[in-house]
Amino acid sequence: MRKAVVRIILVGIVLFLLSFLFKKADQYTSTDAYCNSCHVHEHAHTSWMQSPHNNSCEQTVHCIDCHLPPKGQGFYKEKVKAGLRDLYAFYTKDSTDFNWQQKSQVDFAKHHTFEQSCIQCHPKLFPSDLSENGELAHWHYQQNKEEMHCIQCHMNIGHGTDKKASHNITLFTKQHKKDTIYTQAANSIGLTAFIETIPGSDIAFKMLPVQGEANNTNDSAAIQSFFIGEIEVSWDEYLLFLSETESEGRTEHNQVDGISGATPPWGNPDQGWGMGRRPAITMTHHAATVYCQWLSLKTGKDYRLPTEAEWEYAASKAIEKEGLNSQLTNTNKTNTLEPNAVEADGIGARHLFGNVKEFCSDAFGQSTKEFVIKGGSFKSDIKTLSPSFRESTQHDNWLKTDPQIPKSIWWYSDCNDVGFRVVLSYHSNEN
Amino acid sequence: MSKQSRRDFINKSLLAGGLTLAAGAMSCRQKNEARPLPQSAPDGPVLKAGLIGCGSRGTGAALNFLDAGPSLEIVALGDVFEDKLQKCRANIKKEKGIEIDSEKCFVGFDAYEKVIDAGVDIVLMATPPYFRPQQFEAAVKAGKHIFMEKPVAVDPAGVRSIMINGMRAQEMGLSVVTGTLKRHQEDYLVTYQKIKSGAIGEIVSGNCYYNQGKLWHVNPRAEWSELEAMLRNWVNWCWLSGDHIVEQHIHNIDLMNWFIGSHPEKATGFGSRQRRTTGDQYDNFSVDYIYPNNVHVHSMCRQINGCSTNVTDNIRGTHGYTNCENTIFNPQGEVRWKYPLTEEQQNDRWHFFWRAFVQEHIDLVTAVRTNQPINEAQQIAESSLTAIMGRVSAYTGKMVTWDEMLNSELKLGPKHFVMGDVKMNKTIPIPGQ
Q: B148: which of A409, B99, B125, B191 fits an S-S bond (Cβ 3.0–4.6 Å)?
């Protein structure tokens, strides 16, 4: 009897000690200092220090508050998983090889940011001071909880300086900075390369000649000669279009020479990768078509999207000598690049393959709302790409998280690798 | 679109609302059949209510509120028209002996804001439904409990506002009860429980009817502006009432959504205007609603004198059918179960119906005083949108989907509210155009 009592007491003491040690270990491994102790993601620590989750909340939000679920909702399971994963990575991999930029994008970040943790601290989705846009966005979230994650709109609030949702609307209300102002459009002569200049702006871009299959013939199926943009339409060009035509609301269109322009985007359309000569992205096919109409009005030419046949023809010529190689493409990456990051191809163009998928004017199959997109993007595997490789837009999927009603006809909320390139028919009797 | 969150919300509302009250205690609502609804709200600190919309239904709602239990007061009134307000004030004094302070009687388009700010705990809303979303938002943001008459919106923009502020009310712990009477009628609640327990098997189809004679209309007068004439004749103008499929037939449509446990996915409707003399509304609709699992519900409503009348519901299942109110039949049409009526109830065909007008307020006050909030905003918003779907389909001649309606930009009514001419399209819709 006495031995049994002693055993029970000993087991009790051991259990107490184990529980004490477990608690201490849990506390120690739950601190921000511990999370940052491996010194491989100092940038994450710095951006968190700047964020409202560190310095403007009523209380500091620690690493584990977002990157683990709340206690009682799988906390320890996820902690063990994350711990083992981090230990394995720390001792077997070189942290300089880690793609931190990729990890901080929504598609990846939602795997290590727990939504129930957001909700734990922010249980009320409809505070009285919520803006009308915020109300619609949160209502939309309520309707589509399984498909959405808080960070899709509140991406830079834990690491970054955003105070609420990611907005970049003011970017588009700024007047474009004008250095050299072109007064007239280019006067192209013959089937030779020329620099197009957009009147009233400092924006210029190069158009390359593509010799057709059957010049001066009446074969309607043959590809006629045309010009194609050296680069995908850049943010510089697209921002000019936006600043001249942008509508303030969905029902009040400003008229600029008959073109009703895009509404301001919801969120940050450049994904934080930068603008300039990088390709403009996330616009809809409709927006790209209207851009061409605007450019045509501005220049007095007939700019348009390429047909699939034209795109394929140009792409075939572009790689017919050297083939498709990584020097010509931005593929297997996590973001867009500027044109000069790759070499010019056989026709002098850049990024026909990779970088962004490019809209064609053709509908995809019998669809009335899907269009052909060519060339793959930075996300594509170069091995899959060829002139004939074709994909379809995915209108509904690419607007899944757009909270506006009706959804935007100008911006895709959920596609960051689509853009376009302009073409221009060549008429031999033109000067 | 995921339906999970919405279903969760509805289920919570249902459970917290009618079923909770019907079942009495939380612990027994899952297993037991419905118990008699409480005949009075429990006593507690005085609850003060303000009424927005002092027409007949508003006056009725105020009196119903006062009948719901002890320590209940009406302390403020608001209406666009002075004569309506004074008539309501006089009726409340006549019926209940309560004199409402003239300083808390507000007239004008902003009267609702003043009522909400008049130191009330509960707001009763009975204006034409066009105004409900704006008033509901203001009341919720001010932290008031709410009774609001059906329907709660006339267009999708209004429905979304009700949904959003319904969620906000839930987060704030506010109670929201609406005027869908059947959900507060004991016979319907008991029948509902039986259907949910499988008494007729799986639901395969339904019919619902609100075929009645002409309702009422008010001819314009020379001394009235166009807006005033419209407001006084509001059941004949679509932007104010939503048309009669929304304004009245919603009772049946809400019942279908309730029993089936979902809103429809599609609607194809017909309708026309044959005998109506004022306004811009139709006077008959016939709509085929398609619910999940291809369950069809035929909805029919008419407001024309001299025609057959019928205000009933019918739901068929794989093992029988029900009138939803009090009787379950086997497939051969023999009565399998009937709600056991007391002698008093047998002698009064409308016993439960009239009782429900007060029951709505008993349920609201009980929820407030027991701190067990109920929230019917989402369910009434969905029912309103269901009815709007039918109207839009009939007006356009096109099949309409739920998602189209939920995301539609359609917003009715003029942009400005100043007594005078009303600048808006007043043409009667023609399908196919």
A: B125
